[in-house]
Amino acid sequence: MLIKDIINALEEDAPLHYAEDFDNVGLLVGNKNTEVTSALITLDTTEDVVEEAIAKNCNLIISFHPIIFKGLKSLTGKNYVERTVLKAIKNDIAIYAIHTALDNYKKGVNAMLCNQLELVNQRILIPQKQTIKKLTTFVPKAEAEQLRNALFSTGAGSLGNYNHCSFNVEGVGTFNPNEDANPTIGNIGETHYENETKIGITFPKHLENKVLETLFKSHSYEEVAYEVTTLENTNQNIGMGMIAEFETAMTEVDFLNHLKQKMKVSNIRHTQFLEKPIKKVAVLGGSGSFAIGTAKASGADAYVTADLKYHDFFQAENNILLADIGHYESEQYTKNGLVAILTKKIPNFAFVLSNTNTNPVKYF
């Protein structure tokens, strides 16, 4: 098993194309062609985590948060980031980070949080924009079925619970090959009329290279006429946060007690009670102040997130109960979820759940 095999398995579900622009994801340390002994799964990569990897004979660390976030201009060990990276390099340990690619995955961080809270009817809170593309191409009518099937095999043409979706229009195409052409149909210097099918098919943006490669390979024309456009359609499979519901509404006090129990937290920072039941809940693991307005607009009774500042709480405006449970606490089950995903995909490989508590925040 090579590092790249594990990466490919992870990115089938959470392609790095959907990570946020500010993020630093992917293989941060190491060579993707290295043979893997076993992999340690962690929320953060720290010096202690690298020591744990050494002790457990793991030469790959799969981390939710990236240890290298900003550019490194030197590696002298002057801070915890440099010391961690140096320790990993000295011990031939690779580091891979998935972060916001997993945040934006429908069954990723926020789905894991919803599941822990026993919330149902889950859907994306903030769908990521411009994630759907459309291919339009023209093919001889007799070859249309073959080309459609080739494109479908790449994953194109999937819409929600439906696949093999396309739109087809028949018409007549014209072209006149010049003296440098090598036409598969028609003659040089003569205008040719061909009964063609215009095929329109959508696909997720991370498949673009694969779709175009298949188009060129499967199409009979020397010059393939096509266009790719980015759609503004909402994609409910990619995005930040979740909006979901409890099977049965509960009081605000019961809700906060439920949060404490399920998330194993000793205290919760929250806004004032509104004396209304909690049924619909928005969640966003990690720093989520930017989504307060969206949570309110969604009709959520409560919003569970982390890293809210003093003035963020004023945004509740007596419309929603804001609950800050802590950054680490809101994402603590992510490493368990990663182990579950990878074990299902690669059942005969050793994925080790890190038992190092990397939470830098302590409570007195």
Class based on secondary structure composition and strand pairing: alpha/beta
CATH class of the largest domain: Alpha Beta
Helix share, percent: 25-40%
Largest beta-sheet characterization: 6 strands, mixed
Q: Count of DSSP helices?
A: 11
CATH topology of the largest domain: Udp-n-acetylmuramoylalanyl-d-glutamate--2,6- Diaminopimelate Ligase, Chain: A, domain 1
CATH architecture of the largest domain: 3-Layer(aba) Sandwich
**Cα separation of the termini:** 45 Å
Integer tally of domains: 3
Q: What is the approximate shape?
A: globular
Specify the CATH homologous superfamily of the largest domain.
NIF3 (NGG1p interacting factor 3)-like
User: Mean pLDDT across all residues, rounded?
Assistant: 96
Number of strands: 15
Query: What's the SSE pattern?
Result: HEEHEHEHHEEHEEHEEHEEHEEHHE
Radius of gyration from the CA trace? 25 Å
- Poorly predicted segments: none
Largest sheet, spatial ordering of strands: 5-10-12-13-14-11
Please report which band the strand proportion falls in: under 5%, 5-15%, 15-25%, 25-35%, 35-45% or over 45%.
Answer: 25-35%
